[in-house]
């Protein structure tokens, strides 16, 4: 793979968004590979966890957003328990999945105003909110 790097590419705003959403500092990773070595589903991934983090460090977020890896991660936390730098890759995957899901939705498929008055008054509030989130991403 050929990468075209520049200061602007590396300081990608979307990567900063991933850090904000995940609460992780991507620069902390020093590529020891312990996360990938211990991941029970690494064989099914197209980009290993440490490779995904490296791509994010280099501003290559689209590669990671297009990967199977972010959907295959089972959030077992094995990688973060092995990480000497305290990086939680599953939280990074959560953030990346949220970005993909939000991109797919240009307009909400169900507007809160469409929920019937009966539903709004009788259904548990959490149920209504949960259904709207599921339908709208
Ligand atoms: S949290 Fe995800 S990436 Fe980390 S070890 Fe588990 S499955 Fe692998
Ligand atoms: S274990 Fe931590 S420091 Fe090592 S490659 Fe994975 S995320 Fe980076």
Concise structural overview:
The chain has helices spanning 7-10, 13-22, 34-38, 49-57, 61-65, 69-72, 78-82, 89-104, 117-122, 125-136. The protein is mostly helical and 137 residues long. Bound molecules: iron/sulfur cluster (2 copies).
Describe the structure.
The structure is a single chain. The protein has ten helices and no strands. The chain has 137 residues and is mainly alpha-helical. The chain folds into two domains: 7-104, no CATH class; 109-137. Helix 2 crosses helix 8 (89-104). The longest helix is centred in the last third of the chain and has 16 residues, at 89-104. The protein is elongated. It starts with 6 loop residues before the first helix and ends with a helix. The model has no long low-confidence stretch (mean pLDDT 87). One iron/sulfur cluster (SF4) is lined by residues 29-35, 49-50, 53, 82-85, 87, 89.
Please give a handful of descriptors for the protein shown.
137 residues, mainly alpha, 2 domains, 55% helix, 0% strand
Radius of gyration: 18 Å
The class by helix and strand makeup works out as mainly alpha
Report strand %: under 5%
H/E element order: HHHHHHHHHH
Shape: elongated
Q: Unreliable runs, pLDDT <50, ≥5 residues?
A: none
Number of domains: 2
Number of DSSP strand runs = 0
- Helix count from the secondary structure assignment: 10
Q: What molecules are bound to this protein?
A: iron/sulfur cluster
- The overall average pLDDT, rounded, is 87
Q: Characterize the largest beta sheet: strand count, sense, and whether it forms a barrel.
A: none
**Span from first to last CA?**
32 Å
What percent of the residues sit in helical stretches (DSSP H or I)? 55-70%
């Amino acid at each position: 793979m050929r990468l075209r790097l520049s200061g602007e590419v590396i300081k990608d705003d979307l990567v900063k968004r991933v850090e904000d959403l995940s609460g992780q500092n991507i620069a902390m990773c020093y590529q020891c590979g312990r996360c990938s070595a211990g991941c029970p589903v690494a064989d099914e991934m197209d980009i290993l966890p440490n490779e995904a983090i490296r791509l994010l460090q280099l501003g290559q977020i689209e590669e990671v957003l297009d990967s199977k890896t972010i959907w295959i991660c089972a959030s077992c936390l094995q990688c973060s328990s092995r990480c000497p730098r305290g990086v939680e890759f599953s939280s990074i995957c959560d953030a990346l999945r949220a970005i993909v899901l939000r991109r797919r939705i240009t307009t909400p498929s169900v507007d809160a105003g469409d929920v019937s008055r009966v539903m709004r008054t009788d259904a548990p509030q959490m149920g209504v909110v949960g259904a709207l989130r599921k339908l709208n991403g």
